[in-house]
Amino acid sequence: MLTSWSYALRRLVGVEPTPVVPVVRLAGIVGAISPLRPGLTLAGLAPLLERAFRWPGAKAVALAINSPGGSAAQSSLIHSRIRSLAAERKLTVHAFIEDVAASGGYWLACAGDEIHADETSIVGSIGVVSAGFGFPELLNRIGVERRLHATGPHKAMLDPFRPEQPGDVERLKEIQADLFESFKALVRSRRAGKLKAEESELFTGSVWSGRRALEMGLIDGVAEMRQLMRARYGEKVRLVAIGARRGWIPRRLRPDIAPGDWAAAALAALEERMLWSRYGL
């Protein structure tokens, strides 16, 4: 490992250090899913991003992205932190899409100064979606009385145990429209001068293969990380993984998790599985 001490020593004795590109992996659902399935959040990623951008002798920072999306807020926060650190450290950011960068996953990819993918990657889904379930008849069938007391007309918006209200749906659509405008503005800004398709096609929520995404200007090229980084920074470049994931047991057998959270984690896992399955994964 090229530590700050070894880097300084090499420079001191006149030996050119091996070029290094730290790699931060952004894999999974964006947002806090459950205590057992934390997802991608700024709180969890901030220390890793700081390490990556302050790595001694870093020539650039690479992002390995594999995400079907999730929280718009966390996508925006993570994106902003990456761009802020890139400006502070004056480092180029290379984003590499693996299986999928859709919705919030593509939002993260836009943090890259360049975006590359495999020709079979799934890219896009520039839009906003909300999903849930409704059980308005369930309580009557099992003999349970629903008691809900709210202080405002919208406090219990989209409560799953009452019939869907037109006003609630309209309010949700207003919120979605605001988020959608933010997403579109970000893509226009980060891909300025590169987009080749009309917005009427780009901003429909559709997804495309990496090959088609390149034709549309959503990505800059079809490439694999190791090969491209060697072409850019030399055959001796070292890709340093920042923050490798812990093993299965330490992440899951946690005594601080309440028994009820295991059920929440199971539901979160189902929701996560459904989100990935939208893209055939």
Portion in beta strands: 15-25%
| CATH class call | Alpha Beta
Distance between the ends:
34 Å
Largest sheet: 8 strands, mixed
Which class of secondary structure composition applies to the elements? alpha/beta
Q: Tell me roughly what share of residues is in helical segments.
A: 40-55%
Number of domains: 1
Task: Tell me the CATH superfamily.
Answer: 2-enoyl-CoA Hydratase, Chain A, domain 1
| Silhouette | elongated
Give a short summary of the structure.
The protein is α/β, with parallel strands linked by helices.
Account of the protein in words:
- It is a single chain.
- Residues 247-254 have low confidence and may be disordered.
- The protein has one domain: 2-enoyl-CoA Hydratase, Chain A, domain 1.
- 42% of the residues lie in helices and 16% in strands.
- With 281 residues, the protein is α/β, with parallel strands linked by helices.
- Helix 2 runs parallel beside helix 3.
- Strands 1, 2, 3, 4, 5, 6, 7 and 8 form an eight-stranded mixed β-sheet that branches.
- It has helices spanning 4-12, 42-53, 72-89, 104-109, 138-142, 166-190, 199-202, 210-216, 225-233, 248-252, 259-277; strands at 20-27, 60-67, 92-102, 114-117, 122-124, 207-209, 221-222, 238-242.
- It has eleven helices and eight strands.
- The chain starts with a helix and ends with a helix.
